C-alpha cells in the first residue's frame, strides 16, 4: 500500500463518485481554499437521464459522457484519481483504495444506487438493469440481436418470444425504454427485415403501482399510458412479477397469474444503494434504510460525523417531505452544490441553513413528439412537452460539445427516423479474448 | 442444422463479409435480377480508415459504422444474415454457417485480413492490432489508462514506461496512430493532469523499411516523418522488432540492439489473411500466398471455379503490377463493383474485360493541419493535404448522417482541441461478468 506522498497542508476534501452529486460538489469548490480529490472507478461523468437512448440506439456512449479530467481541468485545486474505494477509516480520516490511502478532512460520498431485484438476484442476468454504459450496450445488443434472431427463426412460437419485450418498472426509465423500443419496432426498423414484420413486436410494460410515472400528476400518468399504447406498447399496472425463468415471465394481477414468453426482459424497478452505504453504516454507525441508503442529517452529514456527507442516490434525506427525496439528477446536483457551499462557510467559521430541495418538476419522454412535463403549476404533454424535454436535456448536458452533437443527432433522427447507433458490439471481444487465451495460433477464426 | 426454407428460383448470390468489398458487391447488385444474401458476424459496416480516430478518442464507434440492414434496406433483393461461416461445400454449392446452410449460385468472399505477428503470436496480447471496433476500444483504454496510471505512479522509472508508447509498423495506420497519440500528449491532455507533464511522453514509431509510408512518394515519406517529429514522435526506420517481453521492446537497427520499456505497445505491421483463405484453398485447390491471401484470376475468380470470387484484403491480385494490389478500401470497393457488374453481364450471356484498379492516390493524416496526399501527378503536404484528407473521408463515409456528424465532431475538435470520446469502457463489464458469476449477492461492489 502506497501512502499519499503529497504534503497535505490545505483542508483536504475527498469526493467519492463522479456522478451528479460528486461533480457538482467538486465544481462548487473550484475556487475554494481547499484541495479536492475526486475518486471514481471510471474516467468519465455519465449523463444518466439519457442512458436509455444509448440502450435503444439513438446516441453513442460518448454523446452522454465527458471525461472527468476534462470537466475539472480548469479547477486547479482538484485532482481526479481513478480507483476503487474499499473502506473508510474514520479514526485516521483515510479512504482506503485498492492501491493507496487518501487522507481527508472532509469526506463527501456520492456513489449512487443500482436497481433492486427484491431478493431475486438470479434475475439479474436474464433481466439486466440500466445504470452504466456497459449496461446500455448490453441492452442494446440484446434488443437488436432479438430482431436478428427473429429474422432467422422459422418456428413461429420461438419467433414470437423473440419479438416480445418485457419491461419491468413503470418509472421514467421503464416508460422511456418502452416508448423507444416501440418506436424502433414500428418505425425505425420497418424497412430493414425480409422475413419478419417488426410491427408485430409485442412490448409489455409491467408496473407495480396503479399508474406509470407515480412521481407525477395522475393526468400525466394517463397521458403517458395513452402515448405508449398509441405507439404499440401494452401497459399493465398493479402487476407484480412473481418469477422469471427459462425466458418466461410470470406475473400477478389481483389474483390472476399470467405467463408470457420473452427473450428480452429489461429491469427498471427498485433501488439498492451501492455498498458504500453498508461500509459507512459499519464505520460510522449511520442508520441505513431498507434500500441501503444512508439516513442523513438536515445538513446532509452523517449523525455524529459532521465532516462526512452523503449525497445523491446513496442518501436518504427525509427532512423535507415524509418520503425521502427521489433518486434523480436534480436532487444530487443541488445536494452537491449545498455541500460545497457548506464546506466553504465552515472554513470561515460560519454555517448555512439546512438543505432544501427546490423541485422544479419532472419530465419523461415517451416517443417522437410525445413527452410529459410536470412543473407543478404547469403540466405539458405531447409535442410541446417533447420540445421542452429536448431543451432541458440539452441545457443540462455538462459538456458543451456534447450538447451540440446530441442536438444535431436528435434533429437528424427526427428528420430521417434513423438511428445510427445500432451497433451490436462487445460480444466479439469476449469471444476473442477466449480464443486468444486458449488457441493463440487460430486468430479471429473465420472473420466474416 | 436448419436448411434454408426459401425456394431459390432466382440466381442466388451469396456475399461473405460486409466490409468495403462485400458492401459494394451488394450495392452493385441492388437492381439486378438476382437474390443477394450478405453474411457477416457483425451487424454493421465499419469505415476502417477512421478506426484509429476511435482508438485515440476523437470519434465514437457509431460515427464510423452503419448498420448493414440500414445501408441495404432499399435493396429489396438483398437479405442480411448474421452468422459465422464455418466452411464452403463447392459440390453442393453451399455455405455452411454455425446454425444453417445457404445455397449459392455465385459466391463472393470478402472476409479481409488481420495483422501478422510474423510467427510471434504471443505478442498479440501485449501489442494489440487495430482491425475491429473492439480493438479500437481496447487500444483507447490502454492509451488513456497509461496516462491515468502515470498520474498515480511515484516511481520515476515506472512512470517513464507508462509515458512511453511504441508503435510497430510505419504504414498509414502506424503513422496516423503515432501522430494522434503525440497530439493527445502534447496538446489535448496538457491541462488535465496534476502530477505528470504529458509533454514528457515518448512516442516511438518503429518501421522495418527505410522510410514510413513506403506506398507513397519518397518526398511525402520525408514530409510525414518531419511532421511526426514536429509533433514530438520519434521515427526509427530500418528497425526490426526482435522481442516483446515484460513490457520491454527489443529492436535491432543494423547490428545494434536497443531496448525500451513501454507499457503501451501497438501493432500496425504485417498482413495475415482471414482463415476463409485457408478454407477456400482446401475446398477449391486455390493457391494462397505467404500471407494466406487467395491468388485470383484476372476476373477475380478462383482458378477452375468461375462462380467463386475473392475480393478485398483476402485477395492477391497480381495481374496489374508485379506487386499484389494493396489492402486498402479503394481496391476492395472497385473489386466489389467489378464483380457485381460481371455477375450481371454473365447472366445475360456476356462478359467484361479483366479487372483493372484505378489508383487515384493515397493519403495519410499525421495531425491537425498536417497530412500527406499522393495523387501521382499532384502531391500535397501540410494544411492543404489535411483539408483534402478531411473532405475525401467525409465524402466516402457511406451513411449520410455519419458524414455530417463526423464533420461536426472534427470541426469542434479543431476549434476546442478537445476529444470527447475519451471514455475508458469495457473493463468494468468484464469484471462485473465475473462478479455476477461468482458472487451473485455482492453486486457491483463499491460503485464509485
Automatic annotation (TrEMBL), chains A, B:
Catalytic activity: a quinone + NADH + H(+) = a quinol + NAD(+)
Regions crossing the membrane: 383-400
Broad class of enzyme this protein falls into: oxidoreductase
Enzyme Commission (EC) number: 1.6.5.9
Alphabetized UniProt keyword annotations: FAD, Flavoprotein, Membrane, NAD, Oxidoreductase, Transit peptide, Transmembrane, Transmembrane helix
A GO molecular-function annotation: NADH dehydrogenase (quinone) (non-electrogenic) activity
Segments forming a coiled coil: none
External alternative NADH-ubiquinone oxidoreductase-like C-terminal domain ranges (all copies): 361-416
InterPro entries assigned to the protein according to its UniProt record, in alphabetical order: FAD/NAD-bd_sf, FAD/NAD-binding_dom, NDH-2, NDH2-like_C
Domain FAD/NAD(P)-binding stretches: 12-336
Matches recorded under PANTHER family: EXTERNAL NADH-UBIQUINONE OXIDOREDUCTASE 1, MITOCHONDRIAL-RELATED (PTHR43706:SF47), NADH DEHYDROGENASE (PTHR43706)
Protein family membership: Belongs to the NADH dehydrogenase family.
Protein's UniProt name: NADH:ubiquinone reductase (non-electrogenic)
Species of origin: Dulcicalothrix desertica PCC 7102
Amino acid at each position: 500500500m502506497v501512502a499519499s506522498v503529497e504534503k497535505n497542508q490545505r483542508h483536504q476534501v475527498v469526493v467519492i463518485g463522479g456522478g451528479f452529486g460528486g461533480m457538482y460538489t467538486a465544481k462548487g469548490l473550484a475556487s475554494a481554499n481547499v484541495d479536492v480529490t475526486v475518486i471514481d472507478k471510471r474516467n468519465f461523468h455519465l449523463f444518466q437521464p439519457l442512458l436509455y437512448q444509448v440502450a435503444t440506439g439513438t446516441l453513442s456512449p460518448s454523446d452522454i459522457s465527458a471525461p472527468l479530467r476534462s470537466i475539472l481541468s480548469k479547477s486547479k485545486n482538484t485532482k481526479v484519481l481513478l480507483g476503487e474505494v474499499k473502506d473508510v477509516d474514520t479514526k485516521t480520516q483515510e479512504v482506503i483504495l485498492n492501491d493507496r490511502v487518501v487522507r481527508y478532512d472532509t469526506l463527501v460520498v456520492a456513489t449512487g444506487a443500482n436497481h433492486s431485484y427484491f431478493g431475486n438476484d438470479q434475475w439479474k442476468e436474464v433481466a439486466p438493469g440500466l445504470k452504466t454504459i456497459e449496461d446500455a450496450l448490453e441492452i442494446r445488443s440484446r434488443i437488436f440481436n432479438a430482431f436478428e434472431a427473429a429474422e432467422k427463426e422459422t418456428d413461429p412460437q420461438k419467433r414470437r418470444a423473440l419479438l416480445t419485450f418485457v419491461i419491468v418498472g413503470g418509472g421514467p426509465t421503464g416508460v422511456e425504454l418502452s416508448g423507444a423500443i416501440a418506436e424502433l419496432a414500428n418505425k425505425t426498423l420497418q424497412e430493414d427485415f425480409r422475413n419478419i414484420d417488426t410491427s408485430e413486436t409485442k412490448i409489455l410494460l409491467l408496473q407495480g403501482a396503479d399508474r406509470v410515472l407515480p412521481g407525477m400528476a395522475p393526468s400525466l400518468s394517463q397521458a403517458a399510458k395513452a402515448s405508449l399504447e398509441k405507439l404499440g406498447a401494452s401497459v399493465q399496472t398493479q402487476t407484480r412479477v412473481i418469477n422469471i425463468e427459462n425466458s418466461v415471465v410470470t406475473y400477478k394481477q389481483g389474483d390472476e397469474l399470467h405467463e408470457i414468453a420473452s427473450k428480452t426482459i429489461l429491469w427498471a424497478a427498485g433501488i439498492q444503494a451501492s455498498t458504500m452505504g453498508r461500509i459507512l453504516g459499519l464505520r460510522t454507525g449511520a442508520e441505513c434504510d431498507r434500500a441501503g441508503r444512508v439516513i442523513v442529517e438536515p445538513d446532509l452529514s452523517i449523525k455524529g460525523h459532521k465532516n462526512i456527507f452523503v449525497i445523491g442516490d446513496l442518501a436518504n434525506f427525509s427532512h423535507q417531505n415524509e418520503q425521502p427525496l427521489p433518486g434523480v439528477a436534480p436532487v444530487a446536483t443541488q445536494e452537491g452544490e449545498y455541500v460545497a457551499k457548506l464546506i466553504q462557510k465552515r472554513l470561515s467559521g460560519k454555517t448555512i441553513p439546512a438543505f432544501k430541495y427546490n423541485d422544479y418538476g419532472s419530465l419523461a419522454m415517451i416517443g417522437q413528439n410525445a413527452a410529459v412535463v410536470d412543473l407543478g403549476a404547469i403540466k405539458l404533454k405531447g409535442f410541446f412537452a417533447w420540445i421542452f424535454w429536448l431543451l432541458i436535456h440539452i441545457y443540462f448536458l455538462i459538456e458543451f460539445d456534447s450538447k451540440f452533437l446530441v442536438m444535431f443527432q436528435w434533429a437528424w433522427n427526427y428528420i430521417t427516423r434513423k438511428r445510427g447507433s445500432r451497433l451490436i458490439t462487445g460480444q466479439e471481444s469476449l469471444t476473442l479474448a477466449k480464443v486468444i487465451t486458449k488457441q493463440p495460433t487460430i486468430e479471429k477464426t473465420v472473420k466474416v
